[in-house]
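Treating backbone geometry as a discrete language has practical consequences that deserve illustration. The sequence in question and its structure tokens are set out directly beneath this paragraph.
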Amino acid sequence: MRTSQELAVGAIAAILGHTSAIPIVVHPGGANDLVITSQDTLDETISVNNAIKAAPLASNAAEKLSISVYNNFQSDGINIYVTGLGPNGDIVCLTSSGSWYTPVGNSNETSPQEITEDIAIPLGDYETTTSFTLPSYLSSGRIWVANGDLTFYTVVAATGVLSLVEPSAVNPDDPSADVNWGFVELTTDPGGITVNLSYVDFVGLPLGIEVQGSDGTQTALGVTANAVSSICSALATKSSSNGQPWNELCMTDSSGNFLRVVAPSDYISLYPDAFDSYWTDYVSQVWAQYEKVPLTVDTQASAGQVNCTVSSGNLTCAGDNRGYVQPAASDIFGCNSGPFAIESTDNAVHQAIVPRLCAAFDRSTLLLSGGNVQPSLESSYYYTASPTNYYSKIVHQYEADGKGYAFAYDDVTPDGVLNASGLLSDPNPTVLTITVGGPTS
């Protein structure tokens, strides 16, 4: 799963050119208004200057996967888009005729180029199903569903790598900013299918997923039909009670219609001072507690349980190659910066501790009884202390079955406990079904 990445704060702030609004009103622009970041791009694994193709993959049921999309949303203008990396590592987009379109980059062209190929698959009428088949395996894939038209671009880096520039849920000037859309993420390969619902960056058009295959039927129902407006209402109430800008996470079109709710980490990318002191006291209390007693982190791997203690301002853990400074709000919400940034040189212990420690902060379980072992507490304890990640808490409340990533490490759970990530997998899938507009019952 691609998780939330650090955005180009200065560039987006320059585009906004205004102070925070309640909520943010989008005003879509053109190619010149794109803010191209790692969060909104998909890179080919080959260079346009040296297109070496990969060897063919052995086939299984997932190679030509059947997709069914059920329309439970009363609109006649919904489109489906499928993007990802094909078996050769090149960018592919599914055309309306059911074949892959492979964009070809020009190393002499450095500005974003709009994809004009017909890659929009119209969704059928309300309460009908639209079906199509993936022509081959797909990695880093997304199936986008939009109440309107999305615009995709390509750009070639100086290294010759072609990138697909995808619609941004965060940039209010993105060409697709006034479209209500969402996506599911998937990878298919000889090992089968992995697919998930992700609200790590935003909640938009309600989608649910179901996989049928050799492991039976698995579902993640997604958010309810009116989840965005309900979440925004709940966030406004929370803002009134604790003075934090939760209500400003919402985006509307010029008519005031709610489009999406962006995650706190992405809001901070727009307004770096937001939530600045929100976690300060809590973090200080955590550090003070674990100066006195050890924090035990269950790596759920060969290292087993490791003890961590605070000394000289740093949290250090047995067997870890480096320690952890106190995290800021942006670090906790994003789980990929400050002490939670994972470097290529970090050992297995460090790579196991980061997600478990960040999950404990987001869920505010570190000071609870039993919180000295992470992870150990069940979900009924999550978000029960304050401060906490109210975006994640409220998003889960409006998921029909509680499933769907609401922050980057939402799949962290104690052994033997089902996680709330909404991640589905099957070694021999027969069909992936997507429901648009919220659960049918």
User: Anything to note?
Assistant: Residues 73 and 94 are 23 Å apart (CA to CA).
